[in-house]
């Protein structure tokens, strides 16, 4: 087990207290028919990890989505939650068009690819006015979605992520391979877009999102890190041009 020590500015009364790694391993999906659900998740191309049955009627089936470090479990006598009550567990992909096409080819009833007209529209029912058809016009990371449900109505939310927010590049938050991320970014962004700081509107949107996710106390550090990164890149370009 590894530990990470909290930065002094974020410890708030927990100075020198180590934080143990806690990796999300499994989420429980409530279903009414185990065999039907097993067939469905197998049809998605997800890996079957286990199917344990016991004399008292308890049964647990585990599947893992491709590239995921977190698995799902369903079965008998596993949860008291109502079958079909799960909503919008995220499935992150680097190319949502390709992922959508693959699921369609597997016979999955999936929504069209859409982007939200207003914040939170991705959580609205299919056909809602807040869902605008097609990918985000600017191909902005985090803003293109699609949804599908299992036979009980448990709904999954597919989201395209090609560029992570600051501080989310290292560790388990990256894609399953460098090639996966590279391919997605190459098809979604030009070199100019990758090299420059976003325009004022995009920068404001990013700052607001970072603030909501990390808290207002950390946003100054995030923005400073972005400025330093792009300043260093700009200097590097100038040096190569001069040589």
Notable characteristics:
single chain; alpha+beta; 2,3-Dihydroxybiphenyl 1,2-Dioxygenase, domain 1; four-stranded mixed sheet; 7 helices
Describe the structure.
With 243 residues, the chain is an alpha+beta fold. It has a four-stranded mixed beta sheet with strand order 3-6-5-4, covered by helices on one side. Strands 7-11-10 form a three-stranded mixed beta sheet. A two-stranded antiparallel sheet has the order 1-2. The chain has helices spanning 8-11, 34-43, 96-105, 178-188, 191-195, 200-214, 219-242, and strands at 3-5, 18-20, 26-28, 47-53, 59-64, 71-76, 87-93, 114-116, 131-133, 145-149, 155-160. It contains seven helices and eleven strands. It has two domains: 3-189, Roll (2,3-Dihydroxybiphenyl 1,2-Dioxygenase, domain 1), CATH 3.10.180; 190-243. Residues 170-175 and 188-197 have low confidence and may be disordered.
Give the SSE layout.
Layout (H helix, E strand, L loop, with lengths): L2 E3 L2 H4 L6 E3 L5 E3 L5 H10 L3 E7 L5 E6 L6 E6 L10 E7 L2 H10 L8 E3 L14 E3 L11 E5 L5 E6 L17 H11 L2 H5 L4 H15 L4 H24 L1
Parallel strand pairs: 3-6, 7-11
Antiparallel strand pairs: 1-2, 4-5, 5-6, 8-9, 10-11
- Low-pLDDT residue intervals, each spanning 5 or more residues: 170-175, 188-197
CA radius of gyration is: 21 Å
Mean pLDDT metric: 78
Structural class: alpha+beta
Give the strand order of the largest sheet, numbering strands 1, 2, ... along the chain: 3-6-5-4
Major sheet, described briefly? 4 strands, mixed
Shape: globular
């Amino acid at each position: 087990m590894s530990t990470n020590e909290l930065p002094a500015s974020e410890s708030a009364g927990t100075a020198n207290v180590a934080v143990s790694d806690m990796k999300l391993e499994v989420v429980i999906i409530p279903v009414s028919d185990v065999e039907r659900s097993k067939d469905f998740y197998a049809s998605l191309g997800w890996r079957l990890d286990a199917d344990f049955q016991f004399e008292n009627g308890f049964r647990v089936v585990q599947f893992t989505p491709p590239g995921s470090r977190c698995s799902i479990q369903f079965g008998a006598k596993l949860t008291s939650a109502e079958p079909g009550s799960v909503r919008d567990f995220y499935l992150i992909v680097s190319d949502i068009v390709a992922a959508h096409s693959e699921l369609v080819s597997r016979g999955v009833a999936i929504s069209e690819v859409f982007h939200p007209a207003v914040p939170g529209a991705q959580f609205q029912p299919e056909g809602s006015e807040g869902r605008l058809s097609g990918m985000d016009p600017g191909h902005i990371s985090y803003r293109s979605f699609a949804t599908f449900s299992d036979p009980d109505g448990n709904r999954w939310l597919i989201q395209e992520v090609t560029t992570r927010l600051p501080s989310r590049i290292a560790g388990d938050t990256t894609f399953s391979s460098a090639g996966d991320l590279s391919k997605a970014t190459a098809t979604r962004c030009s070199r100019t877009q990758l090299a420059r700081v976003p325009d004022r509107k995009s920068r404001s949107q990013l700052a607001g999102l970072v603030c909501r996710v990390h808290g207002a106390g950390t946003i100054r550090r995030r923005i400073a890190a972005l400025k330093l990164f792009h300043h260093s890149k700009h200097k590097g370009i100038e040096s190569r041009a001069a040589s």
